[in-house]
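Model it.
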Amino acid sequence: MANDSLLFLILASLLLSGFFTKTSSAFSIEEASIDDLRLAFKQNQLTSRQLVEFYLKRIGRLNPLLRGVIEVNPDALFLADKADRERKVNTPGSSGGLHGIPILLKDNIATKDKLNTTAGSYALLGSVVPRDAGVVMKLRKAGAIILGKASLSEWSYFRSNGAPSGFCGRSGQGKNPYVLSAGPCGSSSGSAISVAANFVAVSLGTETDGSILCPSNANSVVGIKPTVGLTSRAGVIPISPRQDSVGPICRTVSDAVIVLDAIVGVDYNDGATQEASKYIPHGGYKQFLKPYGLKGKRLGIVRNPFLGFASKAESKAFEHHLQTLRQGGSVIVDHLEIANINAIFNSTGSGEGTLLLAEFKISLNAYLKDLVASPVRTLADVIAFNRKFAELEKINEFGQDIFLLAQATNGIGNIEKAALINLAKLTRDGFQKLMWYYKLDAVVTPGAGFSPVLAIGGFPGINVPAGYDDKGVPFGISFGGLKGTEPKLIQIAFGFEQATRIRKPPTFKA
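Modeled.
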């Protein structure tokens, strides 16, 4: 606590002095969007080297407080210089996309470079991946600079029910940059913290059930959880191939869409991408960033149980935002009910929890087996490592009960098959039936509590900043739809964002 207080005082002094806000060319990097950065490149106000140097210095000063980054890429400045040279000679592709833009990756996304990929655990420190993750290959092709690995709730919050959200063995407890005592939410906590705190403009997270939407909601940033399979999961430390999805976490809808455009598409190392590629619109997703995106959209409002999850400030803001959506031309279909919603939220009864345990063991063992080198090769090895190195693995005090339950499973048997059938029925009779019957474009809920409904069906969702409570703690609003409806969700989210412009920089309150 004493160290946190000292760091806070230093931070406050630096912020007041304007230390973080300018580069030598007087271009303000803080809060800059991808379009801002690209324009600054074009007008010779900024180089990729200056941009990377700014982020590295900011991480160096603030990360001891926020714990949003596990490690930075030792080659980041080399890659920045390479990007600057390519722009100087007008190399094809150097004028657009993510060229020269640094990005942080959640530490379960593999990179074949000097960075580790560990899911935040010492058990995988020093492991060697066979190749870049599929999404990383696409990011490199788009010219992005891999700046480093963001922290996360260790093992994507699938190790222990007792661990605090945002706690990582390798980097410690992540902190919310708006109110340090407020939780950052997990598991993609570091990706959201880092973007909110201007460690970087854009990041990638992953979601199995809430792990993009919840950190985005808690840290006042935009998170897109794509339709499962729209983005490759190859090279991502898994929980469930049926539910895992990789998506952007950024400060604006526009930036998130630019990153989404870069990472979607077929990857032959992930079979699900071939089926999901049918949803990708010709011309990509940026075309749906329309100022009048709310007009004519049919939006369903499901109050039970989501308003019950909300604080008084969130509930009041939500009612106000419904008026904003109406004023933007949306048709609000209120007081709807999702059939069997209580069953969906009971992960044990629904079968979601049962399936995730079995799927985790199978998919993690396959991931570990594929590594070129690794201290652990099976889930059983990871459990043994945690027991042996209890002092090193500081998260051990919270146990590994989920790991032990997963290790006790034995493949996809009759119980798991019954769970699959039940989840499909809950989805068909619940969310899908609601969407089809009322001809909805999206369902709108306060916060990120809608994630289980989207998770069990592989559906997409977007969370956008929606306000702050009286203590300054952020909250968001979620838009969810059926598979492949990202174009509609982007129109709605962008329309809402442009109509409200609620997000503000973090305050770093103690």
